[in-house]
Design brief:
- Strands 13-12-11-14-15-17-16 form a 7-stranded mixed beta sheet, sandwiched between helices.
- The longest helix is centred in the last third of the chain and has 15 residues.
- By secondary structure, the chain is α/β, with parallel strands linked by helices.
- α5 crosses α6 and α8 runs parallel beside α9.
- β9 and β10 form a beta hairpin.
- Helix content is 27%, strand content 29%.
- It contains 10 helices and 17 strands.
- The chain folds into 3 domains: 78 residues, 2-Layer Sandwich (Alpha-Beta Plaits); 82 residues, 2-Layer Sandwich (GMP Synthetase, Chain A, domain 3); 175 residues, 3-Layer(aba) Sandwich (Rossmann fold).
Length: 363
């Protein structure tokens, strides 16, 4: 019975039966309210030891003898059954002041084995306690990060504080069959864009040349390359750490030769190297994509192509505003939008403010 030796053990009455009678015995003891569900069933050779709440006697013992033709009643040590914790609320309900429980974070982002959450000001003094609760609830998590600032700067980085677990925040995130090495403290990455990565990749056709203007560690570029045989993706990013991770991810996903990482500002890279070659351009820089529409138009082939445009927009007509902005910017670039192929809200980023995607066909 050595397989459970590391667990806390409890002495209890049990019924010992041959393995072939195990399922029948568990059903019988369960019907008689004898089965102890807090302890684990043990196995030794051809025998099973099934833990009981009490020593069977009287009518319950007679019923067992009617249903099971071979058993012994013994006292045995059993390991406690570990019950999974369902939520951080369950862990903290007896550890936090009652009036603060309603302020616990409702959503957690998982990037590989890292959990990221936002701690309200009211819970600042309890953030390490909350971090430990996350580790206890989600067994695959190695580090818990708390957001300590907004996304900012040219590299689109956010400041994080490690509130539990390991200080090493490099991880491997898996998405749609791809693996991405990254460190969220060094590069931008959002697991909430998972569907968007797949949506765009599914529209790419064989033989296309794609320019990913703000590629990061490659979630658009690498997925496109993994799901198509004959494509070339020029993946640009201004963050040198993102480019290093992108190079690593290209080889980790066996798409070298299809994805070409380029370090630099997208405007300059297009101007110097990539004018007039693209069938499709991805512009996932919602803070500033409008400033790069002219470069995206220059990157498209003279015959035209498709732009996947992203913008942060607020108010009652967020989608309509984003659509108008990209159409006006394309017109200023002396090209025309011949069709709006798709437009959707990707995610909420603040109260009454959303990330909006608009796909347009350019002539």
């Amino acid at each position: 019975m050595g397989e459970e030796d590391s667990r806390v053990r409890v002495r209890a009455y049990c019924i010992r039966v041959p393995k072939h009678l195990g399922e029948k015995t568990i059903r019988a003891t369960g019907k008689l309210n004898l089965l102890n569900g807090n302890l684990r069933v043990l196995r030794e050779g051809d025998w099973l030891f099934i833990p009981l709440r009490e020593e069977p006697a009287g009518e319950k013992l007679d019923r067992l003898k009617e249903e099971i033709n071979q058993f012994d009643i013994l006292i045995q040590e059993f390991p406690k059954r570990e019950r999974p914790v369902r939520s951080i609320f369950e862990v903290l309900k007896d550890k936090l002041p009652t009036h603060l429980l309603a302020d616990l974070p409702r959503s957690i982002d998982f990037i590989g084995d890292i959990a990221i959450l936002e701690i309200p000001q009211e819970l600042e003094d309890y953030k390490q306690l909350i971090g430990r609760a996350v580790l206890q609830t989600f067994k695959h998590v190695r580090s818990v990060l708390a957001k300590s600032g907004a996304i900012s700067g040219v590299y689109r980085l956010r400041e994080y504080e490690v509130i539990a677990g390991s200080d090493n925040t490099e991880t491997v995130h898996k998405e749609h069959g791809c693996r991405y090495y990254l460190d969220p403290r060094k590069v931008y990455f959002s697991p909430r864009l998972s569907y968007e990565h797949l949506r765009v990749a599914s529209q790419v056709k064989e033989g296309e040349t794609v320019i990913d203007m703000f590629a990061g560690v490659g979630p658009f570029s690498i997925l496109i390359a993994k799901t198509h045989n004959n494509v070339v993706i020029y993946a640009i990013d201004i963050n040198p750490d993102a480019i290093e991770y992108l190079k690593r991810n290209v080889y980790a996903n066996n798409v070298d030769g299809k994805v070409i990482p380029i370090h630099g500002d997208a405007k300059e890279v297009v101007q110097d190297r990539l004018r007039g070659i693209a069938d499709r351009v991805i512009m996932n820089l919602p803070e500033r994509a409008i400033e790069y529409v002219s470069a995206a138009c220059s990157a498209l082939k003279p015959s035209g192509g498709i732009i996947h445009y992203y913008e942060f927009a607020g108010g009652s007509y967020a989608i309509e505003k984003a659509r108008e902005h990209v159409i006006e910017a394309v017109n200023r670039s002396r090209r025309n939008v011949v069709a709006v192929l798709s437009e959707r809200i990707v995610k909420e980023v603040a109260p009454f403010k959303w990330q909006v995607a608009v796909d347009v066909k350019i002539r």
